[in-house]
Amino acid sequence: MKITDHVYVVASGKLGFSFTHPLDCNVFLIDTGSGCIMIDSGVNLEPERIVNVIESHGFQPGDVKKLLLTHYHGDHAGGAAFFRNLSGCEVYAPAKEAEAIAAGDEDANSISLSKGGFYPSDYVFPKCPVTPLYEGESVTLGNVTMKGYVLPGHSLEDMVYHGKIDGKQCLFTGDGVFAAGQVLIQSLHDVSIYPYKIHMKKISELPIDALFPGHGVFCLENGGDHVKAAVAKFESGLIPSQLYYFV
Ligand SMILES: [Zn+2]
């Protein structure tokens, strides 16, 4: 689905627009004029459905030069090895989660807890070599530069990616924050609440027109209002509303 002149959503599961595997997150493709940046990679179940969408927009898998992962959960990072093998793209991930992705550590990313639940019982998270990204580091391809900011809370070190595309300030948030300021706090070992509040405030100070979350709807104008809604809830001493969620 083409959503701006140069941004496409090429995967989305049942917590979103339901046109690729039900467990896929929203996967975004940015056409930089010199190849594509992909944000997240889906769950790696029927990944050829994502390839079909990419091709339907006139791109080839080999056009994907850089893959930016927001965090190490399976629905976002499970497809990284598949797309790296297919396209030869360089894969980036938040530094504190990079080792677990490279090792396919299913305890670290809680997949071992979720088999037979959210994930099929025979689901395997494929290990994938990644380049670690640290707070404030950028990745550039063609005319697009995406800068990473950590937003720990949903997982150990979620990273959101900020940059200007088609004249709009864009923020790709993975599971860090969703439309209407919703969040997704699970009962997992790497969840943190107070750091989430502190870093959400930092993110809310970025200029944000378009907000592209990892599930649910995206917004093309006034995206910053959604982040500020999460901040307001945190600042009142509460936890923002949970993302609608079903398995
Ligand atoms: Zn997710």
Based on the model shown, name its key terms.
single chain; 247 residues; alpha/beta; Metallo-beta-lactamase, Chain A; six-stranded mixed sheet; five-stranded mixed sheet; 23% strand; globular; binds zinc ion
What topology emerges from the helices and strands here?
Blueprint: E1 7-11, E2 27-31, E3 36-39, H1 48-56, E4 64-68, H2 74-77, H3 80-87, E5 90-94, H4 95-103, H5 111-114, E6 131-133, E7 138-141, E8 144-150, E9 159-165, E10 168-174, H6 194-204, E11 210-213, H7 224-235
Parallel strand pairs: 3-4, 4-5, 5-6, 10-11
Antiparallel strand pairs: 1-2, 2-3, 7-8, 8-9, 9-10
Helix pairs in contact: 6-7
The structure holds zinc ion.
Structure commentary:
The chain is of the alpha/beta class and 247 residues long. It has a single domain (7-235), classed as Metallo-beta-lactamase, Chain A. Helices cover 23% and strands 23% of the residues. It is built from 7 helices and 11 strands. It has helices at 48-56, 74-77, 80-87, 95-103, 111-114, 194-204, 224-235, and strands spanning 7-11, 27-31, 36-39, 64-68, 90-94, 131-133, 138-141, 144-150, 159-165, 168-174, 210-213. The strands form 2 sheets. The chain has a 6-stranded mixed β-sheet. Strands 7-8-9-10-11 form a 5-stranded mixed β-sheet, with no helix packed on it. Strand 3, helix 1 and strand 4 (64-68) form a beta-alpha-beta unit. Helix 6 runs antiparallel to helix 7 (224-235). The longest helix is centred in the C-terminal third of the chain and has 12 residues, at 224-235. The radius of gyration is 16 Å and the shape is globular. The two termini are 24 Å apart. The mean pLDDT is 97. The structure holds zinc ion (ZN). Zinc ion is lined by residues 25, 73, 75-76, 175, 214-215.
